[in-house]
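Lab notebook, bench 4. The sequencing result for the construct came back, and we need a structural model before the next group meeting so we can plan mutations. Quick request posted to the team channel:

Model the 3D structure of this chain.
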Amino acid sequence: MNHLRLEIICWSCLLIAMAVSTEAASVWKLPTAQMVYEDLEKCRQESQEEDAATLRCLVKKLGLWTDESGYNARRIAKIFAGHNQMEELMLVVEHCNRMEQDTSHLDDWAFLAYKCATSGQFGHWVKDFMSQKEVER
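Done. Here's the predicted structure in C-alpha coordinate form:
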Protein backbone atom coordinates (compact mmCIF):
# COMPACT_ATOMS: atom_id res chain seq x y z
CA MET A 1 0.00 0.00 0.00
CA ASN A 2 2.80 2.45 0.89
CA HIS A 3 4.56 1.59 -2.34
CA LEU A 4 1.42 2.48 -4.33
CA ARG A 5 1.06 5.78 -2.45
CA LEU A 6 4.68 6.66 -3.14
CA GLU A 7 4.24 5.85 -6.81
CA ILE A 8 1.13 8.04 -7.03
CA ILE A 9 2.97 10.90 -5.32
CA CYS A 10 5.92 10.55 -7.72
CA TRP A 11 3.66 10.55 -10.77
CA SER A 12 1.74 13.54 -9.41
CA CYS A 13 4.98 15.47 -8.89
CA LEU A 14 6.12 14.59 -12.40
CA LEU A 15 2.84 15.77 -13.92
CA ILE A 16 2.95 19.02 -11.95
CA ALA A 17 6.54 19.64 -13.06
CA MET A 18 5.61 18.96 -16.68
CA ALA A 19 2.62 21.30 -16.46
CA VAL A 20 4.72 24.10 -14.97
CA SER A 21 7.47 23.75 -17.58
CA THR A 22 4.92 23.59 -20.41
CA GLU A 23 3.19 26.70 -19.09
CA ALA A 24 6.49 28.57 -18.79
CA ALA A 25 7.48 27.57 -22.32
CA SER A 26 4.12 28.58 -23.77
CA VAL A 27 4.24 32.07 -22.23
CA TRP A 28 7.14 33.19 -24.44
CA LYS A 29 6.10 35.03 -27.58
CA LEU A 30 8.05 35.88 -30.69
CA PRO A 31 9.41 39.40 -30.30
CA THR A 32 8.60 42.04 -32.87
CA ALA A 33 11.09 44.65 -34.02
CA GLN A 34 9.02 47.20 -32.07
CA MET A 35 9.43 45.16 -28.86
CA VAL A 36 13.16 44.89 -29.45
CA TYR A 37 13.56 48.65 -29.89
CA GLU A 38 11.48 49.42 -26.79
CA ASP A 39 13.41 46.96 -24.63
CA LEU A 40 16.70 48.13 -26.12
CA GLU A 41 16.02 51.70 -25.02
CA LYS A 42 15.22 50.56 -21.47
CA CYS A 43 18.36 48.43 -21.36
CA ARG A 44 20.57 51.26 -22.61
CA GLN A 45 19.39 53.39 -19.73
CA GLU A 46 19.77 50.59 -17.16
CA SER A 47 23.28 49.66 -18.30
CA GLN A 48 24.48 53.23 -18.81
CA GLU A 49 25.02 52.55 -22.54
CA GLU A 50 27.70 49.88 -21.98
CA ASP A 51 27.40 47.54 -25.02
CA ALA A 52 27.87 44.11 -23.42
CA ALA A 53 25.58 44.90 -20.46
CA THR A 54 22.97 46.40 -22.80
CA LEU A 55 22.97 43.32 -25.00
CA ARG A 56 22.63 40.91 -22.07
CA CYS A 57 19.81 42.99 -20.60
CA LEU A 58 18.01 43.02 -23.95
CA VAL A 59 18.23 39.31 -24.65
CA LYS A 60 17.11 38.54 -21.09
CA LYS A 61 14.06 40.79 -21.49
CA LEU A 62 13.25 39.10 -24.80
CA GLY A 63 13.47 35.66 -23.18
CA LEU A 64 16.43 34.63 -25.34
CA TRP A 65 19.03 34.35 -22.55
CA THR A 66 19.47 32.89 -19.08
CA ASP A 67 22.56 33.38 -16.95
CA GLU A 68 22.72 29.64 -16.35
CA SER A 69 22.71 28.39 -19.94
CA GLY A 70 23.25 31.43 -22.16
CA TYR A 71 21.31 31.83 -25.39
CA ASN A 72 18.18 29.79 -26.04
CA ALA A 73 19.00 28.56 -29.55
CA ARG A 74 15.51 27.15 -30.15
CA ARG A 75 13.79 30.47 -29.45
CA ILE A 76 16.27 32.37 -31.59
CA ALA A 77 15.71 29.90 -34.43
CA LYS A 78 11.92 30.39 -34.13
CA ILE A 79 12.34 34.11 -34.72
CA PHE A 80 14.15 33.40 -37.99
CA ALA A 81 12.15 30.31 -39.02
CA GLY A 82 11.21 31.97 -42.31
CA HIS A 83 14.75 31.40 -43.54
CA ASN A 84 14.18 27.61 -43.40
CA GLN A 85 17.51 26.96 -41.69
CA MET A 86 16.43 26.47 -38.09
CA GLU A 87 18.66 23.46 -37.40
CA GLU A 88 21.73 25.16 -38.84
CA LEU A 89 21.03 28.35 -36.90
CA MET A 90 20.58 26.41 -33.67
CA LEU A 91 23.92 24.69 -34.24
CA VAL A 92 25.66 28.04 -34.78
CA VAL A 93 24.10 29.61 -31.68
CA GLU A 94 24.84 26.56 -29.53
CA HIS A 95 28.45 26.41 -30.80
CA CYS A 96 29.08 30.09 -30.08
CA ASN A 97 27.33 29.80 -26.72
CA ARG A 98 29.63 26.94 -25.66
CA MET A 99 32.76 28.48 -27.14
CA GLU A 100 32.33 31.80 -25.32
CA GLN A 101 30.77 30.47 -22.09
CA ASP A 102 32.09 32.37 -19.08
CA THR A 103 29.78 32.30 -16.07
CA SER A 104 32.02 34.69 -14.15
CA HIS A 105 31.65 37.42 -16.82
CA LEU A 106 28.06 37.11 -18.05
CA ASP A 107 27.94 40.36 -20.03
CA ASP A 108 31.08 39.38 -21.94
CA TRP A 109 29.73 35.87 -22.56
CA ALA A 110 26.51 37.28 -24.04
CA PHE A 111 28.37 39.82 -26.16
CA LEU A 112 31.09 37.50 -27.49
CA ALA A 113 28.62 34.69 -28.25
CA TYR A 114 26.44 37.20 -30.10
CA LYS A 115 29.41 38.47 -32.13
CA CYS A 116 30.37 34.89 -32.95
CA ALA A 117 26.86 33.88 -34.03
CA THR A 118 26.21 37.02 -36.08
CA SER A 119 29.52 37.02 -37.92
CA GLY A 120 27.94 35.15 -40.86
CA GLN A 121 24.56 34.92 -42.57
CA PHE A 122 22.68 35.16 -39.27
CA GLY A 123 24.05 38.68 -38.82
CA HIS A 124 22.33 39.74 -42.05
CA TRP A 125 19.06 38.22 -40.84
CA VAL A 126 19.32 40.21 -37.60
CA LYS A 127 19.87 43.45 -39.54
CA ASP A 128 16.88 42.65 -41.78
CA PHE A 129 14.72 41.90 -38.73
CA MET A 130 15.69 45.16 -37.06
CA SER A 131 15.08 47.17 -40.25
CA GLN A 132 11.41 46.09 -40.09
CA LYS A 133 10.92 48.74 -37.40
CA GLU A 134 12.22 51.46 -39.72
CA VAL A 135 9.79 50.35 -42.44
CA GLU A 136 6.88 50.58 -39.96
CA ARG A 137 7.60 54.26 -39.23
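Residues 10-24 have pLDDT under 50 and may be disordered.
Will bring this to the meeting.
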